[in-house]
C-alpha cells in the first residue's frame, strides 16, 4: 500500500518495512533513529544489522512519514520496502531499536539476498503460478502462523523458528524435488523479508527456478479481491492486531497472554482456555516453557 492509499480516516498508520543494505556501522544509526521515533510518538520495533533494517512501527501519519523519510536517507535505503495499513488504536506498547546479527534470523552466514535472490511475483500473477501443477508451494513461516491461515495447497514445514528452515529443506530435498526435472518452487511469508533469504538459500542449494510473492501475504490480501483469492483463513501479524484479513482488516484472533500464540474464537470456547493464563496450545505447560511467539 502506498502512502496515498492509506485510509485518511485511520488515526494510526502502521508501517511494515525492510531493506537489505550494507551498513558498515549499524550501531551508529541506532541512537538518531530511536530519538526521532520517541520525539514523534512512534512505537514498534526496528532491527538494525550489517545487512540492513527490518521492523514494524505505528504512529500518527505525519510521524510515520518523518521516520520513513529518515530511513530512506540511510545508505542504499531509498528503495525501502514499506507496506502501510491503518489501525484504530496504537498496536504497540513501546519503541525499540535493536542491534542484531541478522534482520531476519536464518543462521546461514553465506546467504546474501543482495547477491542472489529468487524471482519476484506480483500478487496479480501469484494464483497462476501456484495453480501450475509443475510448481510446489512452500510456506516459510512458523507453525503457529501457518495454523491460522495459508494458501491452498501450500506445504507447511512445521518449523518453530525460521532458522529451522534450512535443515528442514535439506532433510526433505529429495522428497520435495524428486529425481527427474526439478519443479518450480514458490515460497511466501508475511511481508516478503523471510523469502528474500529462503529463496537466496534455495538458489545457493542449486535450485534453479525459485519464486516468491512480492510484498508477501500482506500485499496479496491488500490487492487481490477476496472473490479471486486463494488465501484461506487469516494472516498472523506481530502486533496487537494479532491477525488480519482481506483488505488488511483486523481479524478475529486474539493473543494468548501466557504464550503469545494466536487464539481463535473456537480456542476461546475451549475449557483449556483461561483468559490471562493459558490457551489450548500451552495449557498444562510450565510457565518457563511458555515462550512468547517470535
From TrEMBL:
Known catalytic reactions: uridine(34) in tRNA + AH2 + O2 = 5-hydroxyuridine(34) in tRNA + A + H2O
Sorted UniProt keywords: Oxidoreductase, tRNA processing
One GO term (biological process): tRNA modification
Enzyme Commission number(s) of this protein: 1.14.-.-
Cited Pfam families: Rhodanese, UPF0176_N
Domain spans labelled Rhodanese: 131-229
Origin superkingdom: Bacteria
UniProt-listed InterPro entries: Rhodanese-like_dom, Rhodanese-like_dom_sf, TrhO, TRHO_N
Primary enzyme class: oxidoreductase
Keyword Cytoplasm in annotation: no
Function: Catalyzes oxygen-dependent 5-hydroxyuridine (ho5U) modification at position 34 in tRNAs.
Annotated family: Belongs to the TrhO family.
NCBIfam families for this protein: PRK00142.1-4
Name of the featured protein: tRNA uridine(34) hydroxylase
Organism for this UniProt entry: Stakelama pacifica
Protein encoded by which gene: trhO
Amino acid at each position: 500500500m502506498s502512502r496515498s492509499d492509506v485510509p485518511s480516516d485511520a488515526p494510526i498508520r502502521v508501517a511494515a518495512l525492510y531493506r537489505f543494505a550494507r551498513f558498515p556501522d549499524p550501531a551508529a544509526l541506532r541512537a538518531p533513529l530511536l530519538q526521532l521515533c520517541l520525539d514523534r510518538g512512534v512505537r514498534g520495533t526496528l532491527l538494525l544489522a550489517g545487512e540492513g533494517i527490518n521492523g514494524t512501527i505505528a504512529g500518527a501519519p505525519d510521524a510515520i512519514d518523518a521516520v520513513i523519510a529518515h530511513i530512506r536517507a540511510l545508505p542504499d535505503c531509498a528503495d525501502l520496502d514499506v507496506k502501510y495499513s491503518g489501525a484504530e488504536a496504537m498496536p504497540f506498547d513501546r519503541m525499540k531499536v535493536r542491534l542484531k546479527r541478522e534482520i531476519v534470523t536464518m543462521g546461514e552466514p553465506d546467504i546474501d539476498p543482495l547477491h542472489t535472490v529468487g524471482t519476484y511475483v506480483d500478487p496479480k500473477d501469484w494464483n497462476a503460478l501456484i495453480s501450475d501443477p509443475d510448481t510446489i508451494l512452500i510456506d516459510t513461516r512458523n507453525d503457529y502462523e501457518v495454523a491460522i491461515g495459508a494458501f491452498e495447497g501450500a506445504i507447511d514445514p512445521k518449523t518453530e523458528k525460521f532458522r529451522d528452515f534450512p535443515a528442514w529443506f535439506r532433510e526433505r530435498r529429495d522428497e520435495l524435488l524428486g529425481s527427474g526435472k526439478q519443479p518450480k518452487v514458490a515460497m511466501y511469508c508475511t511481508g516478503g523479508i523471510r523469502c528474500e533469504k529462503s529463496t537466496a538459500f534455495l538458489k545457493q542449494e542449486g535450485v534453479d527456478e525459485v519464486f516468491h510473492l512480492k510484498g508477501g501475504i500482506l500485499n496479496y490480501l491488500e490487492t487481490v479481491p477476496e472473490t479471486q483469492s486463494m488465501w484461506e483463513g487469516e494472516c498472523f501479524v506481530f502486533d496487537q492486531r494479532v491477525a488480519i484479513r482481506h483488505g488488511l482488516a483486523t481479524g478475529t484472533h486474539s493473543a494468548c497472554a501466557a504464550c503469545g500464540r494466536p487464539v481463535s474464537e473456537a480456542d476461546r470456547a475451549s475449557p483449556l482456555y483461561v483468559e490471562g493464563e493459558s490457551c489450548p496450545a500451552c495449557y498444562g505447560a510450565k510457565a518457563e516453557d511458555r515462550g512468547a511467539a517470535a
